[in-house]
Amino acid sequence: MVTNLTTQQIESIQIDESVIFLNYGETDEQFLAPTRGGGEFAATVTVRDIEFDGRHGKTAGTQVIEEQGASIKVTTLCMSQENLARAIPCCTVASDEGKTIKNPPTGVIPMSTYLKNVTMFAKTIGGKYKKITIYNPMHETGFTAKAVKKAEGELALEFLAHYPHSDLDGDLWKVEEIAQAPEMNAK
Question: Does domain 9-43+71-178 bear CATH number 2.30.110?
Answer without folding.
Answer: yes
